[in-house]
Write a structure and sequence with these properties.
Number of helices: 12
Order of helices and strands: EHEHEHHEHEHEEEEEHEEHHHEEHH
Strand content: 15-25%
Distance between the termini: 70 Å
CATH superfamily of the largest domain: HUPs
Largest sheet: 5 strands, parallel
Number of domains: 3
CATH class of the largest domain: Alpha Beta
Strand order of the largest sheet: 3-2-1-4-5
Number of strands: 14
Structural class: alpha/beta
Shape: elongated
Pathway: Amino-acid biosynthesis; L-arginine biosynthesis; L-arginine from L-ornithine and carbamoyl phosphate: step 2/3
Radius of gyration: 26 Å
Pfam family, one: Arginosuc_synth
Helix content: 40-55%
EC number: 6.3.4.5
Main location: cytoplasm
GO molecular function: argininosuccinate synthase activity; ATP binding
Length: 410
């Protein structure tokens, strides 16, 4: 690959991406543009701007963009319409943020005339795949630089030495071995590495940042009503809110009740297993409530088909194929299923758990007169079930008869 002249870097302001910024300047002699996304990670982002300036980035080349509403509206909510879970448990909090970051990296590259983008993902993880597949899908001509796959800064010690040699500010807690690595956004926090690498050891309490321990949660349960329109949450307790505001509020409520903790050993796309600690309080509530409203508004055939494709859909997101035609095809099917998924769900939060306790909708398919144990006024003729059973039993009876005949001859 020829040396780039201008690179847009996904920049957090932390030590690693600051080293990458300086490395790009020294290794390629290129102009660097920084992009910092406000994904609701809960950190002040202006220090990233100041740090970029100290590293020689012109103010006009520093882009800090609030993408919280876009993140929830265009990425999180479509994913939650599918009830997506990777390997049955993981709510894909890191995975779903990467295509959005890549989208803005490519956009800024096109607007500033940059010929390359760069990211700080390592060569062992999933994020390198997600960033790069997304970037190439959006701009097949873009160059992608992944310093962790190129440089010789293969240890924390070498990183610190490079930082000191290039006058890169190092916060004191970075001089020793960090206990674990954290990624955060409005949907979740993800912690992995170091103190968490042995899956045989319970994660220490200090790892958890967004949720209280369930045993320390309030002794009184809290009821919460979430209203949906076409599969998306639109209100909490009757108060209409924007997508990002809804998720923020659910995070606050779920966090104080200890909801949404997950200790998972997952299969990375690159082939290895990794152990992560995830906190997704708002997302866990949202999933339970969405399931609750689907129970009364979604037809059995549509719901079962949707559930059958969900693992494939979740895997596509996990593996970085958000912008693939197959994900878009599945999304169209999922979105079609959500046309009548509107109504309100009441959930109960208590000591780390959230469960649906009531649901109602003008679009409900639930018919009390058909399922009642009392008189049903002729809504359902129970005698019809006999023929239904006989027809469904026919093939089973034929198989049993055949097997008995073969066994007798043998």
């Amino acid at each position: 690959m020829s040396k780039p002249k201008k690179v847009v870097l996904a920049y957090s302001g932390g030590l690693d991406t600051s080293i990458i910024l300086k490395w790009l300047q020294t290794e390629y002699g290129c102009e660097v543009v920084t992009f910092t996304a406000d994904l609701g990670q809960g950190e002040e982002l202006e220090p990233a701007r100041a740090k970029a300036v100290t590293l020689g980035i012109a103010p006009e080349n520093i882009h800090i963009v609030d993408v919280r509403e876009e993140f929830v509206r265009d990425f999180v909510f479509p994913m939650f319409r599918a009830n997506a879970l990777y390997e049955g448990l993981y709510l894909l909090g890191t995975s779903i943020a990467r295509p959005l970051i890549s989208k803005h990296l490519v956009r800024i590259a096109e607007e500033t005339g940059a010929d390359a983008v760069a990211h700080g993902a390592t060569g062992k993880g999933n994020d390198q795949v997600r960033f790069e597949l997304s970037a190439y899908a959006l701009n097949p001509a873009i160059k992608v630089i992944a310093p962790w796959r190129e440089w010789d800064l293969t240890s924390r010690t070498k990183l610190i030495e490079f930082a000191e040699a290039n006058q890169i500010p190092i916060s004191k807690d970075k001089r020793g071995e960090a206990p674990f690595s954290v990624d955060a956004n409005l949907l979740h926090t993800s912690s992995e590495g170091k103190a968490l690498e042995n899956p045989g050891d319970e994660a220490p309490d200090y790892v958890y940042q967004r949720t209280v321990a369930p045993e320390d949660a309030p002794d009184t349960a809290e009821m919460l009503e979430i209203t949906f329109e076409a599969g998306d949450a639109v209100a909490i307790n009757g108060e209409a809110m924007s997508p990002a505001t809804i998720l923020t509020r659910l995070n606050e409520i779920g966090g104080r009740h200890g909801v949404g903790r997950l200790d998972l050993v997952e299969n990375r796309f690159v082939g290895m297993k990794s152990r992560g600690i995830y906190e997704t309080p708002g997302g866990t509530i949202l999933l339970e409530a969405h399931r609750g409203i689907e129970q009364i508004t979604l037809d059995a055939g549509a719901g079962h088909l949707k559930d059958s494709i969900m693992p494939r859909y979740a895997e596509l997101i996990y593996n970085g194929f958000w912008y693939s035609p197959e994900r878009e095809m599945l999304q169209a099917l999922i979105d079609k299923s959500q046309e009548h998924v509107s109504g309100t769900v009441r959930v109960k939060l208590y000591k780390g758990s959230v469960r649906t306790v009531a649901r109602w909708s003008d679009h409900s398919l639930y018919s009390e007169k058909h399922v009642t144990f009392e008189e049903d006024a002729g809504a359902y003729d129970q005698k019809d079930a006999a023929g239904f059973i006989r027809l469904n039993a026919l093939r089973l009876k034929l198989i049993a008869t055949r097997n008995a005949r073969v066994a007798k001859k043998g």
